[in-house]
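explain this:

___
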Amino acid sequence: MTDYGEEQRNELEALESIYPDSFTVLSENPPSFTITVTSEAGENDETVQTTLKFTYSEKYPDEAPLYEIFAQLNLEDNDVADILKLLALQAEENLGMVMISTLVTAVQEKLNEIVDQMKTRREEEKKQEEREAEEAEKPLLIGDFLNWKAKFDAELLEIKTKRIKEEEQAGKNKLSGRQLFETDHNLDTSDIQFLEDAGNNVEVDESLFQEMDDLELEDDEDDPDYNPADRESDLTN
């Protein structure tokens, strides 16, 4: 018959010697204690830490101990969840054997892994910032320029096409000089009206025409003795 109490007392003595600075007894009945686990120092001496609380069940180690995260430092919620899953898996795999040291070692390795992940994440963020800075500073690539130029040319062609259509439409609405004359009969007096508007009044001296009436103009063709041949003979002589 297994003496669970004896096994538990022996393990408690071993744990106190293994973790002298981080092992703390909370109660003796039922046996309950904490062990603080700290990761190895990462970049810039950064560490993560958790304090595990264990309580022996009546038939431990044939039954898994009760466990919980008693305290933590620099851990995300998902990290805490991962540690609890790890404890459950390790407890299941080690039933029948005292396992507290095995559980603590598994958590220690998990904390070191978390620190490494933090370092990797920080390095990736730094590289991403450097890439973004380089993208912002580097000159426009030829491919980007060609894409921009194609877009610019398309917009320019659209503007030219629109302007040509507007000019064509304006040409259709524009009348020729003859069409303007036919549609506006006032244009036949436009020159005189223009001169009058400019202060150049057109005056006709009627006396000139009266004096012309007094002139006696001979019309050879009205003379009954007129012979065109005689006129030609006069011209040759």
Summary: The beta strands are 23-28, 31-38, 49-55, 66-73. Residues 9 and 115 are 34 Å apart (CA to CA). DSSP finds eight helices and four strands in the chain.
